[in-house]
Structures are given as structure tokens and as C-alpha cells.
């Protein structure tokens, strides 16, 4: 059953995963400086009766950051907290990992969009984990998250990193380009973290969760790793391919291509699946995607019709009135169908390029060619908005 909670205008219901596995999640923070890592980990888990479920918005500070970054009105944070503060994600919090014999679970590093944070893509991360992936949803520390924090070595202290807009007088490209490079480096550091764990390195989680990262040692296949992201995270995923050859492919959800410098396009060495919404992309952004598809015959560009940019986030599952209050728009396609199309296209692409011989995701290969109801090849574009 869907987990839901009362909110302004109706019910919020994040869907459970549709794959064969139950899904667990935990939070991981490594290191006592902002050069460390912070992520939410989604993974196949053993079923537990009455298992606790994590909050969708993990702490009140995130409501303040979200109100500021998304609405430009921090005073709305209390209302936002009332609306969604008690909503939960339909996964098992700190649930026991379901063991998997060799070769282990494939890994996805996930990068969030501008003004988001690690939990706002719980629907897509849960869905992928239910099909047998370990998904590490990063919370970036480049001032692009709605807010985030790290814990200095002094016991009990926290240092928060607020969302930052482009400083007055500074060109947006240079500001965002610096951020996207930091984000891609964080994706690479996350991969190194899991490579170390798979190799037997002991990694302390300074959040002291009741979940031991060492259980991943014999259950993770770090030779089958993809990078994925939405919007600013989509272009982050593309750049991560340039920075790290161990990433076998990338899935870019409605990628915001603007921050990537032109000279790097010829350097992208692996295939990318671009899954766009109907109302976000610009001709310039589409042209940049086509530069990559013209260089690599395995790169694909598809568009999910009837969708807007926010439909690839958990916001799609907010009630209409609340969603309209925050964003002023929503797509016409049912969000559950949009999630199914997006996840199935991604799974088909991941099977092909991670060489997941034991899986049956190839049944959805037609989506990669833009064949099917509510999906189109190439990339129609509308007005850009972030």
C-alpha cells in the first residue's frame, strides 16, 4: 500500500517500488569537513514487519532551505513544514541488506538538481533499488542544495551550507561551471567510497546509524557503475563520465546543459541516455545533447510527453493545489505513468551498458527509441525554467 499523509489540498503518496525487491535506506556521512560526503543510500532489503520509515523531509532546516531556494520566501518554511513535514518514504529505514551472491548489486550514483537535496528523488531511487540496484543519492556541498550540513570533529556540532544564488556582477556560466565540476568530483569521491568498501576498507559513518556499511563488501559489484541525475544533476552526470572512466554510462533526466563548457563535449567517452520532459528544454540545450548523440551511436534522447521539469522529482506526487502553489504548473501525464516510463527506459539502458546478463530489462528497449505511448524520440522543447 502507498504510504501517505494529509497535507494541504489532499494526500501525498510516494509510490513503493514496483520491482521484486523490498527497499531499505539509510543516511551516510563520511568525513568531518565539507570535502567529505553526505548521501542517502537505497538498496534491496529483507522484509521486516512493522519496519520504521524515514521522513521525506529529514529535518525542519530543509523546509527553510526549500522555501528559500524554490519560492524565494523563507517565511513559507513553517507552512511547508506543516504541509509535508510528517510525510514518509515507503521504504524500510535501516532495513537489513538482502544478500546477493556474486557478482553483487550494480551501483548508481545519483546527483540532485538545483535547490534540491538527497531525499527529493526518493520515488525514482526507490524504484531502481526495487529492481536490484544500490543507489547512492548525494547531497552536494557546492551551495546548489536547498541546504545541507556537515559535522566538524567537535562532538555535537554542525555547520550548515546554505543555497547560494549567482552573486551580483558574476556571470552565471562561470559560477555554475565551477559548481558542476565540484559536483562531478563529489560523484567520483562517492564511487571511490564504495570501491573502498567493496575492497574491505572500514568506513565509519559519523551519523552513527544502526547500519554497518561493511555489509556491502561482498554484495556490491563496483565494475558495474552508472551515474544519474536530474537537471543540474543531469549535466553533472555527463561531466562525471569525463572525470571517471569507471562510470560505464550516464542517465540524464531533463539535463540542464548550460553549465558545461563546449571543449568538454568531445571528451565524453561513454553513452548517455537523455530522458527529457516536454516543457523544459531549449534549442541550445537540445543541440548540445545532439552533439553527444552524433559522436556516440549508443547515446539516446527521448522525451516523455505530457510532463514538466518537476515531474521527474517527488514533487510530482504532491496534490495539485500544493504543487501549483509551489511551481505554478504541472504535467498532464499521470505521475505514476511518467515514473514507470522513466524508470523502465533507464533500466533498459542500464542493462545494455552495464551488461546485466541476468536481468530482463531488455523488454523495455523500445523506449530507448522513443517508441510507445507518451514517449517520443528526440527532444521537442518549450520554455526553459529552473
From TrEMBL:
Active site residues of this protein: 231 (nucleophile), 254 (charge relay system), 309 (charge relay system)
Name of the top EC class for this enzyme: hydrolase
Gene Ontology BP term (one): lipid catabolic process
Pfam families in the record: PAF-AH_p_II (PF03403)
Keyword hit for Lipid metabolism: yes
The EC number(s) this enzyme carries: 3.1.1.47
Database matches in InterPro entries: AB_hydrolase_fold, PAF_acetylhydro_eukaryote
Alphabetical UniProt keywords: Hydrolase, Lipid degradation, Lipid metabolism
GO function term, MF aspect, one: 1-alkyl-2-acetylglycerophosphocholine esterase activity
Protein name listed in UniProt: 1-alkyl-2-acetylglycerophosphocholine esterase
Lineage: Eukaryota, Metazoa, Chordata, Craniata, Vertebrata
Amino acid at each position: 500500500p502507498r504510504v501517505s499523509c494529509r497535507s494541504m489540498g489532499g494526500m501525498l503518496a510516494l509510490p513503493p517500488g514496483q520491482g521484486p525487491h523490498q527497499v531499505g535506506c539509510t543516511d551516510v556521512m563520511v568525513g568531518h569537513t565539507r570535502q567529505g560526503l553526505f548521501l542517502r543510500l537505497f538498496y534491496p532489503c529483507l522484509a521486516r514487519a512493522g519496519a520504521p520509515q524515514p521522513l521525506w523531509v529529514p529535518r525542519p532546516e530543509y523546509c527553510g532551505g526549500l522555501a528559500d531556494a524554490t519560492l524565494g520566501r523563507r517565511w513559507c518554511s513553517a507552512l511547508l513544514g506543516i504541509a509535508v513535514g510528517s510525510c514518509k518514504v515507503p521504504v524500510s529505514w535501516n532495513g537489513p541488506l538482502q544478500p546477493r551472491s556474486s557478482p553483487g548489486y550494480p551501483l548508481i550514483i545519483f546527483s540532485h538538481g538545483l535547490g534540491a537535496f538527497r531525499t527529493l528523488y526518493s520515488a525514482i531511487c526507490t524504484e531502481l533499488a526495487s529492481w536490484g540496484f544500490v543507489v547512492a543519492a548525494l547531497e552536494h556541498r557546492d551551495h546548489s542544495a536547498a541546504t545541507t550540513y556537515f559535522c566538524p570533529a567537535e562532538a555535537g556540532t554542525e555547520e550548515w551550507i546554505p543555497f547560494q544564488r549567482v552573486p551580483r556582477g558574476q556571470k552565471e556560466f562561470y559560477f555554475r561551471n565551477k559548481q558542476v565540476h565540484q559536483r562531478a568530483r563529489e560523484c567520483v569521491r562517492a564511487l571511490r567510497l564504495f570501491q573502498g568498501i567493496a575492497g574491505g576498507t572500514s568506513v565509519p559513518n559519523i551519523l552513527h546509524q544502526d547500519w554497518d556499511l561493511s555489509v556491502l563488501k561482498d554484495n556490491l559489484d563496483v565494475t558495474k557503475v552508472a551515474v544519474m541525475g536530474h537537471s543540474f544533476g543531469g549535466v553533472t552526470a555527463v561531466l562525471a563520465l569525463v572525470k571517471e572512466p569507471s562510470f560505464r554510462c550516464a542517465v540524464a533526466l531533463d539535463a540542464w546543459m548550460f553549465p558545461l563548457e563546449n571543449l568538454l563535449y568531445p571528451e565524453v567517452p561513454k553513452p548517455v541516455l537523455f530522458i527529457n520532459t516536454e516543457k523544459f528544454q531549449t534549442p541550445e540545450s537540445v543541440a548540445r545533447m545532439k552533439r553527444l548523440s552524433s559522436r556516440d551511436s549508443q547515446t539516446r534522447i527521448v522525451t516523455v510527453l505530457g510532463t514538466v521539469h518537476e515531474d521527474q522529482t517527488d514533487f510530482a506526487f504532491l496534490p495539485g493545489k500544493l504543487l501549483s502553489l509551489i511551481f505554478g504548473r504541472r504535467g498532464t501525464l499521470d505521475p505514476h505513468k511518467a515514473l514507470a516510463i522513466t524508470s523502465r527506459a533507464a533500466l533498459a539502458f542500464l542493462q545494455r551498458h552495464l551488461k546485466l546478463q541476468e536481468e530482463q530489462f531488455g523488454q523495455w528497449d523500445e523506449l530507448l527509441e522513443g517508441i510507445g505511448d507518451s514517449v517520443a524520440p528526440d527532444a521537442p522543447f518549450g520554455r526553459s525554467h529552473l
